[in-house]
Amino acid sequence: MVRAPCCEKMGLKKGPWTPEEDQVLVSYIQTNGHGNWRALPKLAGLLRCGKSCRLRWTNYLRPDIKRGNFTREEEDSIIQLHEMLGNRWSAIAARLPGRTDNEIKNVWHTHLKKRLKNYQPPQNSKKHSKNNLDSKAPSTSQTFNNSDNFSNIQEDINGPVTGPNSPQRSSSEMSTVTADSTAMTTITIDDQNMFKQLDEMNSSESFIPEIDESFWTNDLSTGDNSNFDMEGTGEELQVQFPFSSVKQESMDMVGTKLEDDMDFWYNVFIKSGDLLDLPEF
DNA sequence: AAATCCACCAACCGCGTACTG
DNA sequence: GCAGTACGCGGTTGGTGGATT
């Protein structure tokens, strides 16, 4: 069943806002605040629906909006954040003061996607982005240089790490991730330590090392990922990978054995926004 | 000069979810 | 626990203006 558009239903005005309407909206909000968006247009004397008013205010009229072209730094930040957060435009906008999610979304679709298209990702990077692990993020890879990003994203996932309203989770509350392949590679780490490690790696020269073709098995390379499975099982998340062998040279990380390919882990833990968003995680 | 194409961006739309009674 | 309401979000659309043919 299709919900009727609110403006149509009410016989309210649609389309571009006039300067007069802008003025009415701004002066009303400056005087009274926006409070209830639904009631606002009636109270302010606007023939618009509350939704339209909210959009106009948040995307255009808000005093803290930064107008004008995006700087190269801002664009780079968007690319980095999109790499990590996917199409979560509001989360990205929250890290770019003065920019709205709508604006960022537009810039992404009109400029940045093209920029990335011209960028040749390292071999393999898209092979393990199939099967929904990476459904929200493009399969490109790059070096990160914003040292705040991982901490911020950690906050996004777990809530603020410090502060009166958001106490740090105890280690028993911290979720674990278990990666299990048919080669019986099992890794358990907690996400707090993981982000700490990633922050450290982030400050190094090259966050994502090159990987060689042999890292991937034929199963995955041929795109037969039907047996890929991820499921949340209470406190523990089981992740099954379809490949039967992984590079076994390991590094000691977070007190646990991990493969040395950080591109892999990056995709598993960072690019997979869905995985990280699971409340059980 | 006219027609067409294309890029840009403001605004709309519907869905998911938080909130409230 | 449920239903109704309101809001926020991401995807999409449509108008506009500049570039190209």
TrEMBL record:
<dbReference type="InterPro" id="IPR001005">
    <property type="entry name" value="SANT/Myb"/>
</dbReference>
<keyword id="KW-0539">Nucleus</keyword>
<feature type="domain" description="Myb-like">
    <location>
        <begin position="62"/>
        <end position="112"/>
    </location>
</feature>
<keyword id="KW-0805">Transcription regulation</keyword>
<feature type="compositionally biased region" description="Polar residues">
    <location>
        <begin position="132"/>
        <end position="155"/>
    </location>
</feature>
<feature type="compositionally biased region" description="Polar residues">
    <location>
        <begin position="163"/>
        <end position="180"/>
    </location>
</feature>
<feature type="domain" description="HTH myb-type">
    <location>
        <begin position="62"/>
        <end position="116"/>
    </location>
</feature>
<dbReference type="InterPro" id="IPR009057">
    <property type="entry name" value="Homeodomain-like_sf"/>
</dbReference>
<dbReference type="GO" id="GO:0010597">
    <property type="term" value="P:green leaf volatile biosynthetic process"/>
</dbReference>
<dbReference type="GO" id="GO:0005634">
    <property type="term" value="C:nucleus"/>
</dbReference>
<feature type="region of interest" description="Disordered">
    <location>
        <begin position="116"/>
        <end position="180"/>
    </location>
</feature>
<keyword id="KW-0677">Repeat</keyword>
<protein>
    <submittedName>
        <fullName>Myb-related protein Myb4-like</fullName>
    </submittedName>
</protein>
<dbReference type="GO" id="GO:0000976">
    <property type="term" value="F:transcription cis-regulatory region binding"/>
</dbReference>
<feature type="domain" description="Myb-like">
    <location>
        <begin position="9"/>
        <end position="61"/>
    </location>
</feature>
<feature type="domain" description="HTH myb-type">
    <location>
        <begin position="9"/>
        <end position="61"/>
    </location>
</feature>
<dbReference type="Pfam" id="PF00249">
    <property type="entry name" value="Myb_DNA-binding"/>
</dbReference>
<keyword id="KW-0804">Transcription</keyword>
<dbReference type="InterPro" id="IPR017930">
    <property type="entry name" value="Myb_dom"/>
</dbReference>
<keyword id="KW-0238">DNA-binding</keyword>
<dbReference type="InterPro" id="IPR015495">
    <property type="entry name" value="Myb_TF_plants"/>
</dbReference>
